[in-house]
């Protein structure tokens, strides 16, 4: 999934320029729906055609990761057309979605709902997403009209086109936002190393513990990560900072420590308190991730370059 997200981001910068934001997000929504359809089908094949189900799940993971990136990139582009205060509100919303998604998964599976039913049930949610996206896009247009200096400065659906990322445009892009881009990329690399890698490895096989915090440790960790992200992204509206390099260093330290924990399992050797500590630690990881994300966006929005 991470490879798909990285590769798609690079391809998007090259080929997406001729298409409108609405077209790009619409495509992302359709492909992700197909991804969840494949996930649901893959679980039905467990024990019947397990190998086919495995590769179907891999394809679904690639599609969901790839087109999640496209959706996020274009939502961020529209965000720049909205008032600065909405950066915090948008970040809060993404944190809420991560928490609700993770905790819904834990509840559904523990209630006996099948994996297949759960993933197939996610598809209708995209209809709600599409309706909300159209609303946000409309607000962005209205905000542009209110703040445009002249009529010819307005961006229309046809004229709002992104520049392709080429060898000629890259130096200018890097000059205007290179430090911010590097910090955001580094922080998110560390985030995903922890959330999708080290935390998963560290929490495998909780036996002999049967407490919910141990058995569901990874899913709960993703949930509290979302809470940390949510609160941190919301806080930028009141406590912004331009020291994004310090935030990146903190997440690097988190990544290294989680890497050691994934290999040595030192914290979980303390018993049940160690499993609770994982949750507090994931909250802190999410907080740092949210701080990096929102403050990078805030610095971009305030930049005069």
Automatic annotation (TrEMBL):
CC annotations in GO: endomembrane system; membrane; vacuole
Main location: membrane
Compartments (UniProt record): Endomembrane system
Membrane-spanning ranges: 26-45, 52-71, 103-132, 173-194, 209-232, 244-264, 276-300
Entries under InterPro entries matching the protein: Battenin_disease_Cln3, MFS_trans_sf
Domain of life of the source: Eukaryota
SUPFAM superfamilies: MFS general substrate transporter (SSF103473)
Keywords attached to this entry: Membrane, Transmembrane, Transmembrane helix
Keyword Membrane carried by entry: yes
Membrane topology designation: Multi-pass membrane protein
Family membership: Belongs to the battenin family.
Protein name according to UniProt: DUF895 domain membrane protein
Organism: Perkinsus olseni (Perkinsus atlanticus)
């Amino acid at each position: 999934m991470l490879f798909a997200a990285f590769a798609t981001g690079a391809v998007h910068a090259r080929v997406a320029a001729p298409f409108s934001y609405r077209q790009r997000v619409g495509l992302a929504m359709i492909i992700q729906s197909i991804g969840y359809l494949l996930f649901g089908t893959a679980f039905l094949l467990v024990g019947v055609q397990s190998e086919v189900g495995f590769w179907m799940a891999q394809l679904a993971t690639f599609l969901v990761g790839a087109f999640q990136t496209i959706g996020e990139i274009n939502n961020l582009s529209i965000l720049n057309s909205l008032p600065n205060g909405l950066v915090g509100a948008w970040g809060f919303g993404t944190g809420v979605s991560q928490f609700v998604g993770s905790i819904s998964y834990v509840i559904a599976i523990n209630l006996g709902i099948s994996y297949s039913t759960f993933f197939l049930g996610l598809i209708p949610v995209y209809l709600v997403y599409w309706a909300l996206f159209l609303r946000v896009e409309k607000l962005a247009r209205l905000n542009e009209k209110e703040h445009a200096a002249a009529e010819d400065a307005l961006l229309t659906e046809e004229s709002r086109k992104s520049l392709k990322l080429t060898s000629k445009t890259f130096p200018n892009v890097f000059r205007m936002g290179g430090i911010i881009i590097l910090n955001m990329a580094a922080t998110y690399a560390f985030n995903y190393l922890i959330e999708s890698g080290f935390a998963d490895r560290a929490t495998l096989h909780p036996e002999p513990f049967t407490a919910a915090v141990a058995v569901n440790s990874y899913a709960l960790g993703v949930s509290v990560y979302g809470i940390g992200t949510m609160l941190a992204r919301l806080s930028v509206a009141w406590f912004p900072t331009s020291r994004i390099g310090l935030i990146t260093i903190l997440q690097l330290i988190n990544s290294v420590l989680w890497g050691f924990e994934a290999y040595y399992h030192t914290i979980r050797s303390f018993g049940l308190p160690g499993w609770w500590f994982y949750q507090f630690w994931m909250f802190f990881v999410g907080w740092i991730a949210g701080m990096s994300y929102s403050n990078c966006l805030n610095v971009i929005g305030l930049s005069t370059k």
